[in-house]
Design brief:
Elements: H1 2-14, H2 19-44, H3 51-66, H4 78-93, H5 99-108, E1 109-111, E2 117-119, H6 125-144, H7 152-163, H8 165-174, E3 178-180, H9 188-198, E4 209-211, H10 228-231, H11 233-236
Parallel strand pairs: 3-4
Antiparallel strand pairs: 1-2
Amino acid sequence: YLDSATRAISELKKAGLSPEDFRDVIALNEEAYGVLNPLIDRVFAGRVSKQTAGDIRQALGELAAGDPGSPYPGVSSVLKVLGESLSGLLSELAGGTNTPASKWKTKHTEEAADGTRIHKSSGHTEKLLALADLYKSYQDRIHQMMYYDYDDMILETIKVLEENPQLARRIRGRYEYILVDEFQDTNGAQMKLLRLVAGEGKDGKGPNLMVVGDDDQSIYKFQGAELANILEFTETYPDAEIITITSNYRSTEDV
């Protein structure tokens, strides 16, 4: 399991999660499954039918109402992720066939020991807690050896800025204007660092921050890029002005 564990720890760091943060996420997920699994059982316990689409539509409303959100930017709650998945399934069912629902049921759900239908991911808690322990042991060990890995460069910077607000203010005073290019390729940790460096602005106004990106051109998902950073930017900075460039200034017409 060495390769898979190494990749998993790297992904957690790219999301900006410490071992303690990861344990919090696991605990929040466990609470979310208390809402999610009864809905899964209600919709998918029986045979998929034409009524399934209506059941999914009702479940989506309950998922949205029961979703408290995530305290970690760039990390979506289980209920939001499953809500988006079921919304996509509902669109597929508009074609009039029940096949997509049958495939979704097979891929995402399983029968629990008590006979109820649950989401498959809800049975992974024990493995995730083991990963959290391994992640913590790994961090303790490399720090004892005075080592850092590649992903730690950003995480350790975030930690220092969070623990030293005065240093963060000094940096914001030195770098008054910030430009981020290829913003669609940023990950959760990079977004967290950006918020610390840019700040929230003064007098209720946003910081002097400009990001440039294209939500159709995310190419670094394999490196932890989080497209939600660009799609949800105006939620983080509601005063941001969006400028859409529709002309192509990079390429020229064929001669």
